[in-house]
Design a protein that fits this description.
This is DNA-binding protein. The chain has about 80 residues and is mainly alpha-helical. Helices cover about 40% and strands about 5% of the residues. The chain has a domain at about 20-75: Orthogonal Bundle (Multidrug-efflux Transporter Regulator, Chain: A, Domain 2), CATH 1.10.1660.
Length: about 80
Amino acid sequence: MKRVALSAPPVQTERAEGSPWTMDEAAAFLRLSVSTLVRMEKAGTLRVFRPHKRNVLITDEEVRRIANGIELTKGIA
């Protein structure tokens, strides 16, 4: 999987720690597109859960894990 270098750190939010994220919220926080998150899910690098048939949520822990991974690869081509 290709790593993406970010120009800025992820956006800080005022969320209750541990609350799940929608794909749109996670994409905005991580500064990635929803399409990228969907590809990550299909590749097995992003774990999601579906409380309903079409509802896709990501745990807070998973979003922060991805954010830390992006920060570690920042500036690496």
